[in-house]
Amino acid sequence: MTTQPTDLPAGHRRTILVNLAPTPPTTVAAVFRTAARLIATNGHYQSDYCPDPFDREMDPAELPHHMRPLSIVAALRCAVSGNPHTCSLLADAAISVLALRLEVNGEGPFWGDIFSLEFHIAAWGDVEGRTGETVVAVLEAAADAQAVTL
Length: 150
What we know:
This protein has five helices and no strands. It is globular. The chain has helices at residues 28-42, 72-81, 89-101, 114-125, 132-149. The model has no long low-confidence stretch (mean pLDDT 82). α1 crosses α2 (72-81) and α3 (89-101) crosses α4. The protein is an all-alpha fold.
């Protein structure tokens, strides 16, 4: 037997808000789109993963990494794991695909290891005058191109 709350007339329903965590991306294109949303929401950060990446000044309980401005590499890693320091095969695949699409001073990445590819993407993001809008546009274009190749 169910009882009606006294503050609602009979036959009315109460709306309950359920906070469902977003599902993590499962494709490279989805990683690009999620990273683009993170940068569009929080801003693009140049020179490091995010402000205070090792939490020496900021409390991660108050401002977690995925709510701070992010570099492109950090956004790609956060899109998959929620943490810019956590490595995953999917994030590494997205980093590899994006690095081969970007040129810095007319050149592509020098080496094929993940650290060189991350450095190449970071160098592209650190170009003077690089805006968050440009980064989001490139990530969205990469997602569209990746979706077409599937």
